[in-house]
Specification:
The protein is of the alpha/beta class. The chain contains 16 helices and 14 strands. The strands form 3 sheets. The protein has a 6-stranded mixed beta sheet. Strands 2-3-4-1-5 form a 5-stranded parallel beta sheet, with helices on both faces. Strands 6-8-7 form a 3-stranded antiparallel beta sheet. The radius of gyration is 22 Å and the shape is globular.
């Protein structure tokens, strides 16, 4: 397994906090990272029925087994345990004593924030970013292969065909994770909902249309979407809501955080099927956004990324404030690019102090970098090279 970028941040957090909490989607590599970073720590997987029963029935006795602390994997399975950890941490606040991981954000963060506020660093691990992916000897070579395979580590670490692994992942997610997070009666309808969401990746989200297409109520659609968010499968990208007087589009955009999973849900079973697929552009947009979020989250930075669209033609797929100024980016899946690609971007830039302090860029599906007037044109491979944290 390759060394994850987030490992440096996890180790640094353990030097400052008595507890480190690492969250992210199931199978994103949290356990592997924590065991690599802290090889001498005891490890307990709370998915195991016997360990979980011990922790639930006798939490004090369970924790007393580990006087030097431990890695407690899938902590959301024992939601009361952080409350007992609080007392131990307050009595003996040794840095890096406890390492917690979890793959369900809502339940985990409710428990951790109530019991361990100020005592834990909360970090996130997403699937492989492009630079991590390229460290594998069997890494994909083309953009379509990258989109099709996605970034779940086990696909590349164990050389498993992406479609086979993703099929098993979806089945496990539906049967185990969805039932743990929420009472969903009909998993068949929920799986249909999951596929309909994949068909909307990279696009503005209309709850009414999504609910109608799935045959469920709008409140149900919103609730089910919150399950996908809690599982780290989708990200709702908010629109920019600054002080501009222009009439802005307010709906969020929905993005699958692993485009390979979206491809599988859409029935795409080979990379070559992507070349003429009507959603290739939307999938590429979600991939670029996910890469930027990974870059920031794996370095301990906030993952919130805005988009901008007004009714006057101003448009930017990404609006990101950094210490060095505003980054405005547009995403185009084509292999060639023209000045038409950033007309809307230029309108947005003029609204921010006439473009002063705004870095404008276009990320496209080609291979050559171009420095146009006021705009940097980046090939898809270069998305890993940009300082998205402003560093």
């Amino acid at each position: 397994m390759v060394r994850r970028i987030a490992q440096d941040r996890v180790e640094a957090a353990a030097a400052s906090f008595p507890v480190v909490t690492l969250t992210g989607p199931r199978q994103s590599g949290k356990t592997t990272l924590c065991r690599a970073a802290f090889p001498d720590k005891a490890y307990v997987n709370l998915e195991s029925p016997d360990h979980r029963a011990f922790a639930l029935e006798d939490p004090r006795g369970f924790l007393a087994q580990f006087p030097q602390g431990a890695i407690l994997d899938e902590i959301q399975r024992t939601p009361e345990l952080p409350s007992y950890l609080q007392g131990l941490v307050d009595a003996e606040p040794v840095k890096g004593r406890w390492i917690l991981t979890g793959s369900q954000n809502l339940g985990l963060m409710d428990s951790v924030s109530q019991s361990l506020a100020g005592r834990t660093a909360v970090l996130h691990l997403m699937p492989l970013s492009l630079d991590e992916l390229m460290a594998f000897p069997n890494a994909p070579n083309t953009l379509d292969e990258v989109l099709f395979c996605g970034g779940y580590p086990r696909i590349f670490d164990q050389n498993i065909p992406a479609s086979d692994w993703l099929a098993s992942y979806v089945a496990t997610y539906l049967e185990r994770d969805v039932r743990q997070i929420s009472q969903v009666g009909d998993l068949t309808v929920f799986q249909k909902f999951l596929g309909l969401c994949a068909g909307r990746t990279g696009q503005q989200l209309n709850y009414s249309n999504l609910a109608a297409d799935c045959g469920v109520s709008q409140p149900t659609a919103k609730h089910w979407l919150s399950i996908l968010e809690a599982s780290f499968l989708v990200y709702l990208q908010p629109s920019w809501s600054g002080n501009h007087r222009k009439r802005l589009v307010k709906m969020p955009k929905m993005h699958f955080m692993d485009v390979g999973l979206a491809c599988w849900l859409l029935g795409i079973r080979a990379p070559e099927h992507l070349s003429l697929h009507p959603l290739r552009g939307a999938l590429f947009a979600s991939w670029v956004l996910s890469e930027i979020r990974k870059h920031r989250l794996h370095r301990g930075q906030p993952g919130t990324l805005h988009y901008y669209r007004d009714h006057g033609g101003g448009e930017a797929d990404l609006l990101l404030e950094t210490p060095q100024g505003m980054i405005l980016a547009e995403v185009k899946a084509g292999q060639t690019i023209s000045s038409e690609a950033w007309k809307g971007l230029s309108r947005v830039a003029q609204g921010f102090a006439n473009g002063q302090g705004c870095q404008q860029m276009v990320v496209y599906g080609g291979e050559e970098e171009q420095a146009r007037k006021d705009v940097l044109v980046l090939p898809w491979r270069a998305v890993q090279d940009i300082a998205w944290c402003g560093e």
